[in-house]
Write a structure and sequence with these properties.
- There is one protein chain.
- By secondary structure, this protein is an alpha/beta fold.
- The chain has a domain at about 10-55 and about 70-100.
- Helix content is about 45%, strand content about 20%.
- It is built from 5 helices and 4 strands; from the N terminus they run βαβαβαβαα.
- It has helices at about 10-25, 40-50, 70-80, 90-100, 105-120; strands at about 1-10, 30-35, 60, 85-90.
- It has a 4-stranded parallel β-sheet with strand order 2-1-3-4, with helices on both faces.
- Helix 2 packs across helix 3 (about 70-80).
- The longest helix has 14 residues, at about 105-120.
- One of its GO terms (biological process) is phosphoenolpyruvate-dependent sugar phosphotransferase system.
- This is PTS system fructose IIA component.
- Keywords: Transferase.
- One of its GO terms (molecular function) is transferase activity.
């Protein structure tokens, strides 16, 4: 399985940079970011990136549900339902945990795990309730 992180500018590359510092480089993680070159350019770059994975299973993590990276990824998932899953709300714990099991990972289980990690890692320390 391959992991693609599709976000607005700066986030995907930042997540992978932090991942690499903490866990080491993983060649199965690819990034693509929406920049000021626009949506049309992003769609073209996304299509080119996904050509690499035509015969692979791909988990795509996006930053913002219904943002452009998510919508473009979702369109790709609809065209390739057997081999692609899209999960929104990417965060560093999600990337770190998923990256260790990419080679033998099951696509649906990985998508479910991404959701579980995202939910589990959101917390408030010492919250004072009024």
């Amino acid at each position: 399985m391959e992991l693609v992180i599709a976000t607005h500018e700066g986030l995907a590359s930042g997540l992978v940079s932090a991942h690499d510092m903490l866990a080491g480089k993983n060649d199965q993680i690819m990034t693509i970011e929406l920049t000021d070159t626009g949506i049309r350019d992003f769609r073209a770059r996304f299509a080119k990136l996904m050509e690499r994975y035509q015969n692979d299973q791909v988990l795509i993590l996006t930053d913002l549900k219904n943002g452009t990276p998510h919508l473009v990824a979702e369109e790709y998932e609809e065209a390739h339902p057997a081999s692609v899953r899209v999960v929104s709300g990417v965060n560093l714990p999600m990337v770190l945990e998923l990256s260790h099991k990419l080679i033998s990972a099951n696509l649906d289980e990985s998508a479910k795990k991404a959701l579980d990690i995202g939910r589990r890692e959101i917390d408030v320390d010492k919250m004072q309730l009024a």
